[in-house]
Amino acid sequence: MKLSAIVSLLAMGSASAFTVKTPTQVASSTRSQPTSLHMESSRRSILSTAAVALSTAAALTIDPQPSQARLEAVNRPDLLPSDAGAVVIQTEKFLTSGQAKRMSDLIRALEKDTGFRLRVLCQNYPNTPGLAIRDFWSLGKEDQMDDKYIVLVVDQFGGKGNVLNFNVGEGVKFALPNVFWTRLSGKYGTTFFVRENGIDFAITNAVEAIVQCLRSEDAYCVNVPDQGVSMKKLGL
Predict the structure, then answer these.
(1) What DSSP state is assigned to residue 8?
(2) DSSP strand pairing (88-90 vs 60-61)
(3) What is Dmax (Cα atoms) for the chain?
(4) What is the three-state SS of 163-182?
């Protein structure tokens, strides 16, 4: 796996991030292999990525689709919002204003009640803040108070790739392990789901699933829960 960027957030602290492969990538590379070899291959891939990140000080990198593997990093602080407390940023408007507002409220309530920091960036590469998002959201910094963060980067890749890309801090891995993120992107991020339901529902369903798991009694999920009721009640 090449360490390159859809969105590259440099100097994030390699111990606090991992890269999640999309189900399309996994399926194409393991179609003829047993499940046990598939899992071992994924594990080695994650460890390899972390090692490269350590040597390059580029630990928070969202795994690109194969066709985007050589994209260059972007640093556009001018694309950041004036609201320093924004938890949902849209340089590409996939959500309505109402959806973004309700999602922001849900995310802030989660952080207040559990300490988990969920952030959402909707973009259309290269129209993205890129590197600038690291300081804006205080992700992976040496003096940060915790590493309980989740960054969801949404990009359609011209309609050719999985739209949901996750990067997860070390403090979230015990609650939501690697396999959860692969299954989540496979359930809601595929081109088929987006075509049939809309990218806004792909985003809101993914966010709701994360919140539902982190608010559950065990605060732990391996499988993606059925669509919950919290955001439905808000009209989504």
Answers:
(1) E
(2) unpaired
(3) 50
(4) CEEEEECHHHCCCCCHHHHH
